[in-house]
Specification:
This protein is α/β, with parallel strands linked by helices. The protein is built from 15 helices and nine strands.
Length: 458
């Protein structure tokens, strides 16, 4: 069961994004079901304000979310659903170590794992504890206050009427702005350099067309107004630039130094030509500035350079605004489809040695394997002698797996000597020590495994 972890600041649109992500995932043939885990499902008897009212409640909420996530991922892995169900953990997930624990759960199940960082604006990525409050956080506080007022108005209604009036389950709210500030300060941004946060998808909810949990909204009128505003800004910037260019092309007076006698102009060297092109005075043969006529660019006042820099910055601002307008043409559905295409094409995680299930073995299991392999080596040498295998010529021999049990055939390409069998036995014992057999393994099974190992080494 692939799993996606959604992280971000409070009230930036994580739950709305999760609903739309689930809707787009169900439209794919490889996804048959979606499990959406949030505070409302992990702690149904508590509100979001209660879940984050103090540090003890935060710890309890994280433990409940982790248990729900573990139950959803492990249950699908046990049922061999082959990734047909997508698990979405919709919460703050603001602690780096907590996200690592979620990664270990997916790795133990051998499933795909990814992180989506939902940002209220691009300023969330540069936010730190010494920064002032960002514009997206101020908007989030306003959104939280609106949710609080709406839920207070609906507090007297029952659950069915709330859903019919609001259209969907309510996202909940935080008690005050101070709680949100503390959560933002403790937020540890995901880093794609960490293996437990790779792949990492960053989603800026303000860089796309207006949307909600059902998809992109019909905002043609709003887009027309935005386009007209961008054109007006473009016209103003162009008119200002034209004025600056006109001022820059006004001829400036040039001071001429009157010479006492006529001198023929010398041919410019390569360095003087480059200097003339660069707008500086030519150099004489000794490398000093020539007393010849200065270049016209030298007489341009220094304020003109500042104005040109201002015009260049205006061009950069105009280009940035244009890029923002281009991004606004992208819909959230396209962003989510790109995330799903990349995420579902990733390889599933492989279980590591730290999370690998270790089979319990008896205390004398290694001694038992040692005795069995020693007996099997003696049986192999005895069978070779009875079959009379000549040097360099192989054949088929039959070895009893137990003293009174069935005989197993072995195809030999050449006779095996005692020193070779001792090396095989020593290597096999090292392998068994690292991969012990389960309790109750019978003697003939151990002997058969050893014979198969010997055949693989021949």
């Amino acid at each position: 069961m692939p799993s996606i972890i959604i992280a971000g600041h409070p009230c930036v649109g994580k739950t709305t994004f999760a609903h739309l992500l689930a809707k787009r995932a169900l439209s794919r043939p490889s996804i048959s079901d979606v499990v959406h885990i949030s505070e409302s499902t992990a702690c149904p008897d508590q509100t979001k304000a209660e879940c984050y009212s103090n540090s003890h409640m935060e710890k309890t909420t994280r433990a409940a979310l982790k248990s729900e996530f573990d139950r959803a991922v492990i249950s699908s892995a046990a049922n061999n659903e082959e990734g047909s169900t997508l698990v979405i953990l919709d919460s703050l997930n603001y602690i780096k170590g907590y996200r690592y624990e979620l990664y270990c759960i997916s790795k133990a199940a051998g499933e795909r794992h990814g992180v989506v960082w939902v940002m209220g604006s691009s300023s969330d990525e540069q936010f730190n504890s010494t920064s002032d409050i960002s514009q997206s956080d101020a908007l989030a506080k306003k959104r939280n206050q609106e949710r609080k007022e709406v839920q207070k108005q609906l507090g007297q209604l029952d659950d069915d009427k709330k859903k019919r009036k609001n259209g969907n389950d309510l996202d909940g709210y935080y008690e005050d702005d101070d709680t949100m500030n503390q959560l933002v300060l403790r937020f540890e941004p995901p880093d794609e350099k960490n293996r437990w946060e790779n792949p990492l998808f960053k989603v800026d909810v303000t860089s796309v067309s207006p949307w909600d949990r059902n998809g992109t909204l019909d905002v043609s009128v709003c887009c027309d107004q935005t386009t007209m505003t961008m054109k007006a800004l473009d016209i103003n910037d162009k008119s200002e630039l034209n004025g600056l260019e006109a001022e820059a092309t006004v001829p400036q007076p040039v001071k001429k130094k009157v010479g006492s006698s006529f001198k023929r102009n010398k041919k410019l060297s390569t360095g003087n030509k480059a200097a003339s092109v660069a707008g500086t005075a030519p150099l004489d043969d000794k490398g000093k500035l020539s007393s010849a006529e200065p270049v016209a660019q030298q007489s341009v006042p220094s304020s003109m350079a500042k104005r040109n820099l201002a015009a260049a910055s205006a061009l950069d601002d105009n280009a940035a605004s244009t890029s923002v307008a281009t991004k606004m043409n992208q819909t959230m559905e396209e962003v989510i489809d790109g995330i799903l295409d990349t995420f579902l094409s990733q390889r599933a995680l492989t279980e590591g040695m730290s999370t690998l299930h270790q089979f319990s073995a008896e205390s004398n299991a290694l001694n038992q394997v040692d005795n069995i392999t020693h007996r099997m080596n003696s049986e192999i040498l005895k069978s070779q002698k009875a079959t009379s295998l000549s040097a360099g010529v192989g054949g088929k021999i039959y070895v009893p797996l137990t003293p009174d049990g069935d005989r197993r055939p072995i195809n030999l390409s050449k006779p095996l000597y005692p020193n070779e069998l001792r090396n095989f036995r020593r290597q096999f014992l090292k392998w068994i020590a690292a991969h012990p057999l389960a309790d109750g393994t019978k003697e003939d099974k151990i002997a058969d495994v050893y014979i198969s190992y010997v055949e693989s080494q021949i």
